[in-house]
Design a protein that fits this description.
The chain has 252 residues and is mostly helical. It contains 11 helices and 2 strands, in the order ααααββααααααα.
């Protein structure tokens, strides 16, 4: 019958432990529960190792030595089982981490789509939300299609929903133009006066005044038309609208 010395058994056991997958432990540091599970498995192996070493150090007789050999075989089997458990835990954790990474990557991409975007409106930089941009583009698209009644409804809805939008002055201006295109000059004048009162520094303000003057002309109100043209020239002298106002008879 083959026998083993104490040193031989110890060496065999240490060699067995060398097969434990160290890389699994390193891969699990990001998950506390997985680390706890592996540490418990490691502790169990260490306890078995200490027990076997103590028995060898007790200088047991031949019968005890054979018993220790059997225990050694059982220990090796248990180590193999524990090693399998560690690999399963490591694989499960790796899969979970990949799913979490994919989830957060997708979430980040979705959130970025909702973030305000920097756009240039009449030469000025402004931050505009995605839904805000979409609403304005849709309303202005209706205006450009020539459906002025529907455009007026959409543009009016926009300025009410986004009164602080960087597009609000433009939407209000085009609302006035939508009324003018329908020959509703009174509504057009009211809409353009909102531009002058609420957004006086907007690049659309001089054009709004010119539109008001045109409406007064349509209404055969020459006095108010001339008054508006003169006010336009005085208020926005460097604008292209002011040049047009001069060409229409405004005071130079």
């Amino acid at each position: 019958m083959m026998t083993f010395s104490k040193a031989g058994l110890a060496a065999a056991l240490m060699a067995a432990f060398a097969y434990l997958p160290l890389h699994a432990n390193a891969a699990l540091f990001d998950d506390d529960e997985a680390r706890k599970a592996i540490l418990e498995l490691r502790s169990k192996v260490d306890a078995m190792t200490r027990d076997l070493t103590e028995r060898l150090d007790a200088k047991a007789d031949k019968t005890s030595t054979l018993s220790l050999i059997n225990q050694h075989d059982q220990t090796m089997q248990e180590i193999a089982r524990l090693r399998g458990q560690i690999e399963v835990v490591a694989n499960d954790l790796a899969t979970m981490q990949k799913r979490q990474k994919d989830f957060y990557t997708d979430l980040d991409a979705r959130l970025r789509k909702l973030e305000p975007r920097q756009v240039t409106i009449d030469g000025q930089e402004a931050a505009v939300g995605v839904s805000e941009q979409s609403a304005y583009d849709t309303a202005f698209g209706v205006f450009k299609s020539g459906d002025y009644k529907a455009a007026a409804t959409a543009l009016d809805a926009f300025v009410k929903r986004y009164p602080e939008s960087a597009y609000a002055a433009n939407a209000q201006y085009w609302l006035g133009n939508a009324y003018y295109a329908q020959r509703d000059c009174k509504s057009a004048i009211s809409a353009q006066q909102v531009v002058l009162k609420t957004y006086p520094d907007s690049p659309k303000a001089p054009d709004a005044m010119l539109n008001i003057a045109s409406c007064y002309t349509e209404l055969k109100d020459k006095a108010n038309a001339t008054k508006t043209l003169n006010a336009l020239i005085a208020r926005y002298p460097e604008s292209s609208a002011a040049q047009t106002a001069k060409e229409r008879g405004g005071k130079k």
